[in-house]
Amino acid sequence: MNETAKAKLLLHPVRMKIVQSLVNGKQLSSQQISGRMKDVPPATLYRHINRLLESGILEVVKENQIRGTIEKIYSLKEAEPPSKEEVSAITKEEHMDLFLSFTNQLAGRFEDYLNQPEYDVLQDGVGFSMGSFQLSDEEFMELMDKMGSLLKEAMDNEPSPERRERHLATIILPEPKDRS
């Protein structure tokens, strides 16, 4: 599966949530994944888990015999990051399609939030902004490492009654070289 097809596969909201529930080496059963995605019907969840298995994104790491049935434990399959050649082979149109899929997914999540019977953007910490800063490539990589460490720590948190799932989307765009 090429990188464009894989990215399109992962941009589906249900599949993205499945993958997010398994990041950082987590190993979960479909029942445990379902517990983190209460709004997704079981049949839909199983269909998307199977799609991720078929594509090689997920793997079964363990099977447990439980009262006459076999419970499968899933994890993300270790994958090599795409090569420079694979990333370079993605066309301008494919990049734009992937970006539009991503932003449409964000808009859908925001619409879901606004369609709640009651919401409080201040209390809930909802926000969106855009800022610019001047960084060398080295300073930029240092910033990404620091942000990555903080996000990994937050993503390792287990669900609990006092925690609420929150979404953070990142888009990084350098100014075109001819405008710098």
What is the C-level CATH assignment of the largest domain? Answer: Mainly Alpha
Number of H/I helices: 8
Largest sheet: 3 strands, antiparallel
User: What would the principal axes of the Cα set say about the shape?
Assistant: globular
Secondary-structure-based class equals mainly alpha
Question: What Rg do the Cα atoms give?
Answer: 19 Å
Helix-strand sequence: HHEHHEEHHHH
Give the number of DSSP strands.
3
Keywords: DNA-binding
GO molecular function: DNA binding; DNA-binding transcription factor activity
InterPro entries: ArsR-like_HTH, HTH_ArsR_DNA-bd_dom, WH-like_DNA-bd_sf, WH_DNA-bd_sf
Organism: Metabacillus mangrovi
What do these coordinates show?
This protein is mainly alpha-helical and 180 residues long. It has two domains: 1-90, Orthogonal Bundle (Arc Repressor Mutant, subunit A), CATH 1.10.10.10; 91-180, no CATH class. It has helices at 3-10, 13-21, 30-36, 42-54, 84-88, 92-114, 121-124, 137-155; strands at residues 28-29, 58-66, 69-76. A three-stranded antiparallel sheet has the order 1-3-2. A hairpin with a 2-residue loop joins β2 (58-66) and β3. The chain is globular and about 65 Å long. It holds the Pfam family HTH_20.
